[in-house]
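User: Can you predict the 3D structure for this chain?
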Amino acid sequence: MHKYPKTFLKHTAANIPLSLYRFFIKRDFLTLCYHVVSDKSLPHIKEYRYKTKSAFENDILYLKKNFSFISYDELLKYKSGESEIKKNAVLLTFDDGLSECFWEIRPILLKHNVPCVFFIATDFIGSEHYLTWEEIKALAKDGFTIGAHSKRHARIDLLPHSEAEKEIIGSCRIIMELLGVNHLPFAFPYHGGLIDRHFLKDIISKHRFIDFLFDTHSLRKEEDFIINRIWAESPVFNINAKSHLAKLLSFAYAGCLKRGRK
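Assistant: Here is the predicted structure, written as structure tokens:
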């Protein structure tokens, strides 16, 4: 039996209507992950492609038309059983805490009244290319949720458990002290797929101020305390001014079928 080229499978999966995927593969909400948005070439960003402001705004317009944005507080209330969730709910997140979150992304989100979670790598606060303490406080004052993203943006899955716990708990405590909050979410740098789930459950049990752990494994279902996200900057499809989210989401749903589970 001949194997189909990956490019053929990729585009075939992307061209199946998203509505069809969503009919068969049920998800109460979707969560998208970005890092940065800029019209400029950023010399400090070499690991991934990012969107221009117009391309990102077109993503927002696509989502406003086809989904319902929810805030982190709305997600918390839904997960705790306090309230129902909106139909076609989607949560927006940004990782790392780059300065563009304030100067480029914030104005677009405020323009369209879109909630968002910003995950901050705390060792870099105030350093070149990253948000300052004042900018983080301003984002929180705007109503955006601030979460932790480790202290030094290390591959937590490669660290001994003692060091991994320090990265998670240490960054959470810094954000809580900065903003005067008593709970928050945490997002793994890179991914947390290889980290022992029993270890993570133990951390959540000991440190109840961590609401959820956010990972980047698309639509994969896991433990209740882990929320996976779709990488919205993915270069799987060409990035231009027109939003490519419909194809990207279809590809994410196709991944569920590939793994043989809904």
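The longest helix spans residues 161-179. The chain has a mean pLDDT of 90.
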